[in-house]
Known about the structure:
By secondary structure, the protein is an alpha+beta fold. It has a single domain (about 30-105, about 160-325, about 365-480), classed as Outer membrane efflux proteins (OEP). It is about 60% helix and about 10% strand. It has 10 helices and 7 strands. It has helices at about 5-20, 70-75, 80, 85-105, 160-225, 230-265, 295-300, 300-320, 365-430, 440-470; strands spanning about 110, 115-120, 125, 135, 140-150, 325-335, 350-360. The strands form 2 sheets. Strands 1, 2, 5, 6 and 7 form a 5-stranded antiparallel beta sheet that branches. The longest helix is centred in the middle third of the chain and has 67 residues, at about 160-225.
Amino acid sequence: MKPRTRTSILAGLAGLLLFSSGCMVGPKYQRPSVPAPVAYGEAPPAGWKEAEPTDGVLRDKWWEVYQDQQLNALEDEVNISNQNILASEAQFRAAQASVRIARSDLYPTVTVGGSISADRTPTTTLRSVSGTGVSAGTGVHAIYSIPLQATYTPDVFGGIRHGVAAERATAQATAAQLENVRLLFHAELASDYFQLRGTDGQVQLFSDQVKSYEEYLQLTRKRYDSGIASMGDIEQARTQLETTRAQLKDLGVQRSQLEHAIAVLTGRPPEGFSIPPAPLHNVPPPTPVGVPSALLERRPDIAAQERQVAAANEEIGVARAALFPAITLTAGGGSESANLLNLLSGPSYLWTLGGQLTQTIFDKGRRQGRIALSQATYDTTVANYRQAVLTAFQQVEDNLAALRILAEEADIQATAVAAAQESLRISTAQYEGGITSYLQVLTTQTIAQQDQRAAVDIQTRRMLASVALIEALGGGWNVSKLPPV
């Protein structure tokens, strides 16, 4: 090939590459709009304040706001030991690998090898003029070659680039899903932990009541021995005592199950795992709520949905690019010689250049169908994204309402507990003075027990609502933490 011809080919290829970088079909992505209220309808509980842009923002280890060392130690084990998180992390690494695979299509594929072939032909005997025989050829021939082959498909209409962008968005969605899994399991652990502490509070309450009822039973027996109380009073006191003992024993089932659940969340076998009892004394800490629009940046599940929308948008570009011709360029080179020593010498070198253009002219609507399919998939992801945003707003509002109402209920219940205890003190004094029967004491005991148990239950529910609110706010995560992949 003449130098001028070769230069023309190379110039044409360079121009094609420049053209392919600027010609890209498919829709440009824009994040779907969603209706976001200016402020939450439920005001934060009394004593809380609206967070400024950098004031009181939840951190990565959001559970530390509860200032519970036992909880902190357990939460630190979730990321490194929870098998569900480890599985999600592996899925993210697989998505990263898919990006690298898709990106490789933007570059030529180059292969190199080496070969040797040999063949043997019959030796030819020629008759000379003098009549003597002359042998021609050795009969064995060997060919040595080092072929080099390059194949490149220019991304003229952006199909490959759209595919890479789709894989990148999918990988980012997987990263957000990983963070969401972490948030879910950290929140589940915190919820189980506070339920465990609430159960410990119930255990302490029932233990104190068992001791009190034992004293009442002894008092009733003394009154019976003095001829003041009846055998019916003794049996009523005994019934109250044994019933409370049974309820206390039943709490052991719930506590064991919560303990086992915490063990699994931290990646441990339940056998041999235990948490020392400690009644719940926490109150929900102030949580920076911020404005609703910030929720789009703080919720990993919303970020995952948005990245899936972006990936679906890129798939439309991939489908549309299939309507246009495909160009494949090939280049070959290497060395070939019958003599191994001459394999790398100038005369043994060879090269080839080539190109191919293909265009589908009939496929019975397959490509148009793929465009319609990708468009419908995109519309589905947009609807899912908007629904996820609405659900997130609902979850924040629900838990703000729960915290506000439960705080008010706790104050009322505290008054009820104080009144029930005073009523029990009066009834006990009247019983000891012989003014009233044990039935009156039994009634006030039951009311006091119910009120105290309700108070512990409300305290537990407040802590659970606090965890749920932090989870609804996205924990300490922010969309800026998505990897660029």
